[in-house]
């Protein structure tokens, strides 16, 4: 039943995204305006995150950045529906600039395995499609709690010939063992490094000045396999002034400390690198995500999102 409903949802999304880009972007803007006017969950989470990471900013500054974040989030959702339901070759034409591809190719050619750390910045679904067009890879993902949501994600991420080069690996014990094997065989693994892990699967490290529980998995993979680590993101460089969005692909070598044997050193370096990317344009980072739900033991701080559902 979940697969059937996922197919129906995919069909409906495909019909919607047949609309011209300008119409879709205006739809995203209308959704953003509604989210702000109704003070919906995403708007409230973004506001709370800004209060946490910018405690000295003026309310007007929070208002301005919150509005930009919500508008980017709504457009991102519409863009992603289109990316999921259109041919990858058509989607990849949205990438106008490519930086660091030679570095990525050299890392693959070295044969030690490559870990692609892809923060929630810009459009990471477009990045996934570019990676799939460039090399076989395995992507670690945390499945949604909903069976329908999980079936839909598997459906949209496998709906193109290039997606056949992608192995979707669930973030659980067996999946982690699979990642180790892929890297030891010289393969490529993609990880979203800024998702909050479960207690016991991470260490607290500063992120925009706030302690954030951060995954230790990436550092363990890098340290134990000797794989190269690169950061990659697709940054929005035109939000539709030419009728459609445009992106720049960026690939950069990660700091060596990301693979340090000391988990604290590794997660500290990881968060510092993600923060540097997010500061390029804070409105393109996923501040609608509850990044700081879990707090350090004994800190005296409760879940800052309490009451936001």
Q: What this model shows, in words?
A:
This protein has a 7-stranded mixed β-sheet, sandwiched between helices. A two-stranded antiparallel ribbon has the order 6-7. The longest helix is centred in the first third of the chain and has 27 residues, at 59-85. It is 47% helix and 17% strand. The mean pLDDT is 93. The protein has one domain (2-284). Strand 6 (202-207) and strand 7 (210-215) form a beta hairpin. The chain contains 11 helices and 9 strands. The chain has 309 residues and is of the alpha/beta class.
Unreliable parts: none
DSSP E strands, number: 9
Give the % helix: 40-55%
- Termini, distance in Å? 27 Å
Biggest sheet strand line-up: 1-9-8-2-5-3-4
Q: Main sheet, how many strands, which sense, barrel?
A: 7 strands, mixed
Q: Work out the helix count.
A: 11
Overall average residue pLDDT: 93
Pick out its properties:
alpha/beta; single chain; 309 residues; two-stranded antiparallel sheet; 47% helix; seven-stranded mixed sheet
List the SSEs and their pairings.
Elements: H1 2-16, H2 21-37, H3 41-53, H4 59-85, H5 88-92, E1 95-99, H6 101-109, E2 114-117, H7 124-134, E3 137-141, H8 147-156, E4 166-170, H9 173-184, E5 188-191, E6 202-207, E7 210-215, H10 217-225, E8 228-238, E9 246-253, H11 263-278
Parallel strand pairs: 1-9, 2-5, 2-8, 3-4, 3-5
Antiparallel strand pairs: 6-7, 8-9
Helix pairs in contact: 1-4, 1-8, 2-4, 3-4, 9-10
């Amino acid at each position: 039943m979940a697969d059937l409903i996922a197919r129906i949802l995919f069909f409906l999304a495909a019909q919607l995204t047949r609309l011209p880009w300008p119409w879709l972007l205006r739809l995203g803007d209308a959704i953003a305006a509604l989210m702000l006017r109704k003070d919906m969950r995403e708007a409230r989470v973004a506001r709370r995150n800004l209060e946490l990471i910018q405690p000295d900013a003026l309310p007007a500054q929070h208002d301005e950045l919150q509005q930009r974040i919500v508008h980017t989030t709504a457009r991102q959702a519409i863009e992603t529906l289109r990316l999921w339901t259109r041919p990858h070759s058509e989607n990849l034409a949205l990438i106008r600039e490519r930086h660091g591809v030679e570095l990525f190719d050299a890392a693959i050619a070295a044969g030690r395995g490559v870990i692609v750390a892809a923060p929630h910045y810009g459009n990471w679904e477009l990045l996934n499609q570019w990676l799939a067009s460039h090399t076989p890879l395995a992507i670690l993902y945390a499945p949604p709690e909903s069976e329908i949501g999980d079936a839909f994600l598997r459906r949209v991420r496998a709906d193109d010939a290039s997606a056949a080069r992608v192995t979707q690996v669930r973030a659980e014990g067996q999946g982690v063992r699979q990642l180790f094997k892929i890297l030891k065989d010289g393969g490529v693994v993609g990880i979203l490094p800024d998702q909050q892990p479960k207690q016991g699967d991470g260490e607290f490290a500063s992120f925009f000045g706030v302690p954030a529980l951060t995954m230790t998995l990436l550092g363990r993979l890098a340290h134990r396999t000797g794989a190269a680590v690169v950061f990659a993101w697709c940054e929005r460089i035109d939000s539709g002034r030419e009728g459609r969005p445009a992106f720049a692909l960026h690939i950069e070598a990660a700091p060596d400390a990301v693979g340090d044997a000391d988990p604290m050193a590794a997660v500290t370096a990881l968060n510092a690198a993600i923060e540097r990317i997010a500061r390029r344009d804070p409105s393109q980072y996923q501040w609608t995500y509850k990044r700081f739900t879990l707090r350090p033991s004994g800190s005296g701080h409760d879940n800052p999102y309490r009451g936001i559902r």
